[in-house]
UniProtKB/TrEMBL annotation:
Keyword Chaperone appears in the UniProt entry: no
Keywords assigned: Cyclin
Source organism per UniProt: Mucochytrium quahogii
InterPro entries for this protein: Cyclin-like_sf, Cyclin/Ssn8, Cyclin_C_2
Listed name of the protein: Cyclin C-terminal domain-containing protein
Domain Cyclin C-terminal stretches: 164-237
Length: 310
């Protein structure tokens, strides 16, 4: 049985604070700027903004894109696919600047690797994710995905056992339903809102700072605070903590989860603002255009080589 506390995720991909992550990104950003003579380099803050922007695009492709023959990917499979792909993508860009590796090139690679990791089922009706369909959604060339797969996996250290907050979220909701069955509809609504909040949190570094169970717990409190109309006493933070936490839990621990829920609420606001932030940033738009042209030129180059080889 897998154990989060002994996992590579816990040992290699969790950080003490945001400053530790920022330093790694800053060092890589400065290194690539020294190596290359960019006319208009990206600042670290702009790279973080673009990372969140591409994660938002990845979410749409994983959750609504036609990725398989017959399109048999249900909601649960799509959520798992997105969480795994997004986590891998984020890990890759802790140690790699976007000025070194194009996110437009690596995004479909992350989705492709995630589909393998999640072992999406093979049945007569559903034969797994189709790389051709994925390529049409994201990049003009299947070969781009295949050429970068090993490089991508190497940069995430081949650490492919991932823990997400979706499973503990489901466990917490089940416990609330068992404890307060008369409020079943409230818990179901809370779970839906909590999933949305957790997806928005992927546009931040919280998954590198908080354990999956704490994120799940915090998302429930954040969801209950976001409901309109507000829930009654059964949805109070005190009652939720009483049901989900062990008796006589440390007050500091309780307060930290409540604080985390406030941070998670803020993630939703940031998520909604992403498109306008990128649209209003001239440097970001320039790099997006450059990455698009790079992919198009790569495709044209391969076409010419194939024609010359005939």
């Amino acid at each position: 049985m897998s154990d989060y506390l002994k996992s590579t995720q816990r040992r290699f991909w969790m950080f003490e604070n945001q400053d530790d992550i920022d330093k790694i990104r800053k060092d890589e950003n400065e290194k690539i700027v020294r190596q290359k003579n960019f006319d208009l380099p990206l600042m670290v803050s702009e790279e973080r903004m673009l990372l969140a922007f591409y994660l938002k695009g990845m979410r749409n492709k994983c959750k609504t894109g036609r990725l398989s023959d017959g399109d048999k990917l249900n909601g649960e499979l799509r959520r798992r696919l997105y969480w795994t792909a997004a986590t891998l993508f984020k890990r890759f860009y802790i140690y790699n600047s976007m000025m070194r590796e194009s996110p437009m090139k690596m995004l479909p690679v992350a989705i492709y690797c995630a589909a393998k990791i999640e072992e999406l089922p093979l049945t007569p009706e559903y034969r797994g994710i189709r790389i051709e369909r994925l390529a049409k959604l994201v990049t003009p060339d299947v070969q781009t995905i295949l050429d970068n797969e090993i490089k991508f996996l190497d940069q995430v250290k081949f650490h492919l056992v991932l823990y997400h907050p979706l499973r503990p979220l489901g466990g917490f909701i089940a416990k609330l339903k068992e404890s307060k069955p008369s409020s079943k509809s409230l818990w179901e609504q809370t779970e839906l809102v909590a999933r949305t909040i957790l997806e928005a949190s992927l546009c931040t570094d919280l998954c590198f700072l908080e354990s999956p169970s704490r994120l799940a717990f915090g998302s429930i409190l954040a969801a209950l605070k976001s409901l309109d109309p507000p829930p009654g006493p059964e949805g109070s933070p005190e009652l939720i903590c009483e049901v989900l936490l062990p008796p006589n839990s440390d007050e500091t621990k309780v307060n930290s989860i409540v604080e985390l829920s406030t941070t998670l609420q803020g993630c939703v606001v940031k998520f909604k603002e992403l498109n306008s932030l990128v649209k209003n940033n001239a440097t970001a738009r320039l790099w997006i255009d450059d990455w698009r042209h790079e992919l198009e030129e790569s495709l044209e180059s391969r076409k010419r080589k194939r024609e010359e080889g005939k």
